[in-house]
Specification:
By secondary structure, the chain is an alpha/beta fold. It contains 8 helices and 10 strands.
Length: about 220
């Protein structure tokens, strides 16, 4: 089992991933810029999940810095406008750790639009900022609303990018622990921009059809 820190974990996506990995038996640390907010969300999740999963959960909350320090895997779920500043600040505490970036550079102007990233993608930006970490891209396209329903099967694939084979395999194993999720090795980090932009497309589809879509890759057994 891993100690998984969710950096910026008080938003819907962070809470959703925390929910799924907590019920899988991992130690979860909810991080926030505001320590009390991290603690409050951890308490709220614990109280909600304990009704269905008693005596199984290990969820705590604190600030982002202590979350990075205390975890062996960090998942980044901050809004993109906080991405660079947050990772720059946390870089010393994420050294030699697996960092899974789930951030989508998106803005909303008459619908979702991708934000151009000089590095190519948010994941590649993270890799440049965290030179001593093992950066992986994953979980972008999973519905936060569905993640927050712990017994619901997501019926979705997760596209995973990374340049470290060992770190990518760990991320693949984590993804496969989520009910109804299948992990797909999508190649090296340079393909991350396509996955992030695809997620922007899915957000638009969700808005038009008033639903929460998943992604399925056919032809892979």
């Amino acid at each position: 089992m891993h100690s998984i820190g969710i950096i910026g974990g008080t938003g819907p996506e962070g809470r959703g991933l925390a929910t799924r990995f907590a019920i899988a038996g991992h130690k979860i640390i909810i991080g926030s810029r505001n320590e009390k907010r991290g603690l409050d969300v951890a308490t709220e999740l614990s109280e909600t999940l304990n009704k269905s999963f008693p005596d199984k959960l290990n969820i705590s909350g604190t600030n982002n810095r202590d979350t990075a320090r205390e975890s062996d895997i960090a998942i980044i779920t901050v809004p993109y406008d906080a991405h660079l500043e947050t990772l720059s600040e946390l870089s010393p505490y994420l050294s030699d750790k697996i960092v899974i970036d789930a951030v989508v550079p998106v803005k909303f102007e008459r619908g979702p639009r991708p934000i151009p990233v000089e590095a190519g993608s948010a994941t590649e930006e993270a890799a440049k900022l965290l030179e001593n970490s093992f950066v992986i891209g994953a979980f972008h396209n999973l519905s936060a609303e569905k993640l927050l329903e712990p017994n619901l099967s997501l019926d979705s694939d997760v596209l995973i990018t990374g340049n470290s084979k060992d770190a990518k395999n760990i991320a693949i194993n984590l993804a496969n622990e989520i009910k109804g999720v299948r992990a797909i090795d999508a190649g090296p980090l340079r393909y991350s921009q396509f996955i992030e932009n695809l997620t922007v497309l899915l957000i638009g589809i969700n808005g038009r059809y008033k639903t929460e879509t998943g992604l399925k890759i056919s032809g892979i057994d």
